[in-house]
Write a structure and sequence with these properties.
Chain lengths: 126, 196
Amino acid sequence: MTTPDDPELELEAAPLVRAYVITNGRSLPADDEFSLITLVTAAQDMPPTGQLDPEKRRLLDLCSGGYLAVAEIAGHTELPVGVVKLLLSDLTQAGYLYTRAPVPPAKLVDRRILEEVLHGLQARFG
Amino acid sequence: MAFKPVLDNGVYLRDSVQTAAKILVVGHFAVGKTTFISTMSEIPPLRTEEVMTQASAGVDDLKGTPGKTTTTVAMDFGRLTLSEKLVLYLFGTPGQQRFVQVWEDMSRGALGALVLVDPDRLEESFPVMDLVEHYGIPYAIAVNRFGDTSHHSDKEIREALDLLPETPLVNCDARDQRSSANSLITLVRYLQSRLN
Ligand SMILES: Nc1nc2c(ncn2[C@@H]2O[C@H](COP(=O)(O)OP(=O)(O)OP(=O)(O)O)[C@@H](O)[C@H]2O)c(=O)[nH]1
Ligand SMILES: [Mg+2]
């Protein structure tokens, strides 16, 4: 078995083992609760943070400056996306975070969004 | 142990932003994806790492995990706030077939894809074309001419890539912001035309 106490394997598998430890060995969510572009920020009045483990505290600190997309949180913390999604999911359920869901892929919404994207690009670069 | 992120101003989105949209910037190895994203992004481009588990073909599997290997796929992305309410993310997505799992994730919720191609290496774009077609992602072609020694015409490129007549094909220098923005505008116009 690949175990973290085998020094040779540890080096190679370090990021994975780290992910495993951070998530308490739970499998990573494959669900759609968070996409890469779900926008997240810290709640205004959040529960006490004293009991949170360091990785969650770190995410919360990052999120307390304003809204960021899930992908940005992964990028800044250098954690794998799956791990970030799981930690964010826990924090959201516990009332520490707010989210803004990404666009539902409905035709009507798409039309409006495409218009906004086009206008935005033209205004800035046209 | 509080983590104080050392982050510049402008890292966070405006509070007024309600909606996030996503466009993929795809293409084969070294075709200019990262360059394009850096050119267009308002923040220094970031990377995400996706840990992928895949069934492995070989017999020399990792001890204790028969039939499975894990690989990390790095994707870079950038951000463009386009209005008070809307932010656009550009995700660079590698074009190799073995990253299908990543493509499945990336294609979900994407408005469309800009496919960067180098006319001197057209055959290298075939796997990418297969992927965008397979996932049904609407796309435009951005021709990134790195010198283009043989001066391929648009017609030749269209034929080689077997493009539909309505698929937009636009010249693009990924190092140039106007040119890159123009490719995105071309893609978005095409996406709009498909709704009519
Ligand atoms: N002449 C020219 N060179 C370019 C252009 N775009 C990118 N390059 C150069 O091509 C090289 C590869 O560009 P990248 O942006 O790293 O390509 P990539 O698609 O991200 O590469 P991978 O992530 O390794 O697949 C760099 O040296 C760029 O400076 C372009 O439009 N014209
Ligand atoms: Mg790159």
